[in-house]
Amino acid sequence: MDVVGAEVELTVVGSQIPLKGKVYAYDEDTNTVAISQGLDFQIVQLTQVEAVKSLSAPKLEPIESPLPIDLQSMQNSFTKRALPSIPVSTRAARVYETVSKTMPTTWDGVNIRVLDVVTVAPPYKEAVSAERDHQASKRVQTIIDSLN
């Protein structure tokens, strides 16, 4: 149904005041329509609508061009995530993969560097930071301990 974007006035069962707004979405499966009124939204079950008055046709708004992609930045990101050129243990790969899901992580030879302040060296059981009580070090250690 091509009604998205149309200005409408709905008369809803049991309501004295008509609902005016722009059709934001229509779902055929649930038989509902979402009406936007500025920043407010009303979801209306179409079985509860007594009458519909069209105030304006849907406006076809131009599609914005997508944001530019910095390919060099993407390539750098993939390079940093790649396994090191030298073979590492399954545990090293597992620690790296798990930590990198929540924090920026890179390989430094066979060592794993997290946030450029924490180092995890073979056998990948301890996170070490130059700052003894660094919060990131504690977080990385918690992740490592959870893998045991």
UniProtKB/TrEMBL annotation:
It comes from the Eukaryota. InterPro entries: AD, Lsm12-like, LSM12_ABD. Pfam families: AD. Residues 58-148 form the AD domain. This is AD domain-containing protein. It comes from Tortispora caseinolytica NRRL Y-17796.
